[in-house]
Amino acid sequence: MPVITRKSKLETRNPHLGGAAIATGFRGRGRPDFRRGPVTRINERIRVPQVRVITDEGEQFGVMETREAIRTARERGLDLVEVSPNADPPVCKIIDFGKFQYEAKKKANEAKKKQVVVTVKEVKFRPGTDLHDYSYRMKHAREWLTEGDKVKATIWFRGREMTHRELGARILEQLEKDLADVGDVEMRPRMEGNQMFTIFMPKKHKSPKDRSREPAAASPPDKSREPGGGSQQNKSPETGAASQGNQSTGGAGGDQSAGSDQAPAA
């Protein structure tokens, strides 16, 4: 009785490729990559014989055997976490691993918030774009620049329009003038294929640090500190008082002299 053997689909489809057909057929196409990034090693996952141990408070235990370091961490109710695997020997910290993960996640979120994502948005024109369409697109470009995004202005040419590139250059030149107060030209107009484009970037504003570095404006001179004005102002009351005193003494002396002259006459 003849023996019937069944061939697999891979062998029937690729009979001349051998093992290569099996490998490619097994992997398939478009399969997602499930490989994970580097994982922080803790406790028994640390495979090196010796590590340098520190605590969360900064206390240093020096170089210890890995088993002894794990035992020390367990006695404290904490974990031995590898924080610097590339050091020689690797540096490990005695800390609560859940707290370590929470702090790492919190730092990553804060760094993500501080990131400034700049996107490039595009406005398209044609050599024969009328005034209404131009103003409509120009207003959108102004809004994007004020929001902090870059703007790419493109002029599309078709057929015989390529012989009139000066029309596109005029549109970009007018656009540059209209956006001068909110944006600067990052890339001058250039041709690529059948299109001419330029890129605008938001206008840079001076930060408080830059403003603090600028020299302060010279304050007007204080006239009270000038030698001439200050001496006159300070001496004027004294001289006035002295003059009044002289007048009073002079008046009294005059009265006395008048009295003395009148006495013999009596």
Provide keyphrases for this structure.
alpha/beta, Ubiquitin-like (UB roll), Translation Initiation Factor IF3, four-stranded mixed beta sheet, 8 helices, 8 strands, disordered C terminus
Break the fold down into its secondary structure elements and pairings.
Layout: H1 9-13, H2 19-27, E1 50-55, E2 60-65, H3 66-75, E3 79-84, E4 91-95, H4 97-114, E5 120-125, H5 131-146, E6 150-156, H6 165-178, E7 183-192, E8 195-202, H7 208-213, H8 227-265
Parallel strand pairs: 1-4, 5-6
Antiparallel strand pairs: 1-2, 3-4, 6-8, 7-8
Write structural notes for this entry.
With 266 residues, this protein is α/β, with parallel strands linked by helices. Among the domains are: 43-105, Ubiquitin-like (UB roll), CATH 3.10.20; 120-202, 2-Layer Sandwich (Translation Initiation Factor IF3), CATH 3.30.110.10. Helices cover 44% and strands 20% of the residues. The termini are far apart. Mean pLDDT is 74; it is low at 8-14, 17-27, 229-243 and 245-266.
